[in-house]
Amino acid sequence: MRWTHLLAVGALSASLAACTTSPTGRSQLTLMSDEQLDQMGAQAFAQYQQELPTVGGAPLRYVQCVTGAVVRALPERERNQNWQVKVFQSEQANAFALPGGYVGINTGLLNVAQNQDQLAAVIGHEIAHVLARHANERASTQSATQLGLSVISSASGMQGAGGETMMAALGMGAQYGIMLPFSRRHESEADTLGLYLMAEAGFDPRASIALWNNMEGGARPPAWASTHPSHGQRIGGLEASMGEAMSRYERARNAGRTPNCPRP
């Protein structure tokens, strides 16, 4: 029991030492270094390229053009990374950005994003996840949660079928009480940060609402059991931030940031 308490105290001390702040001022738990995250991003990007064929030509130039404009609006550290952009042949309307400077867009998404502004909304959202260090926070929270469950199991002497049942219940509590709400929080934060990014790059932030309306459809789990906000929650969050986004958009346009990325 004493060793269990020491383990818990050590984990708490490490967690407190690793608290940082997101770009929106929210407290974060980040246990991993930027170097570790960049390496993981490179590995994930390489794996994705092994699993799906890439597309070049006009689609790639289009995505590179929009991504380049968004990247130029980033803070210096992120802006100066050697960003790599790939377009993948897949009907799934998916996109991602990874630590280390990697962006991937599926061809299916190009059918949903109807113009450069809507595509910028997606790319801004995905890069915002990187900017806010969400991958670090997710991995750190999962690690701390697993350690906490192990400590509870050891301290309570949960053994046998009854103990396994209780641990399964604790795991579900962690899933719905910690991991999924955290993901929804990340998505909402990335919506806001991505909206500001696309506006500062010179893309019309109003296109973000049109984009998410394009993507609406199909059955969804209830908001409390989903890794993403509901459609209404997402649109409401975008609308609440639109005034600030439009101010940034006007300043960007007045400063000469007027992207022109022809859609293939």
UniProtKB/TrEMBL annotation:
Cofactor remark: Binds 1 zinc ion per subunit.
Pfam family, one: Peptidase_M48
One GO BP: proteolysis involved in protein catabolic process
Residues in Peptidase M48 domain copies: 62-239
Leader sequence residues: 1-17
UniProt GO MF annotations: metal ion binding; metalloendopeptidase activity
InterPro entries: Mito/Outer_Membr_Metalloprot, Peptidase_M48
Top-rank lineage group of the source organism: Bacteria
Keywords linked to the UniProt accession: Hydrolase, Metal-binding, Metalloprotease, Protease, Signal, Zinc
Cofactors (names): Zn(2+)
One Gene Ontology cellular component annotation held by this UniProt entry: membrane
Similarity comment: family membership: Belongs to the peptidase M48 family.
Protein name: TPR repeat-containing protein YfgC
Organism: Halomonas lysinitropha
Lineage of origin: Bacteria, Pseudomonadati, Pseudomonadota, Gammaproteobacteria, Oceanospirillales
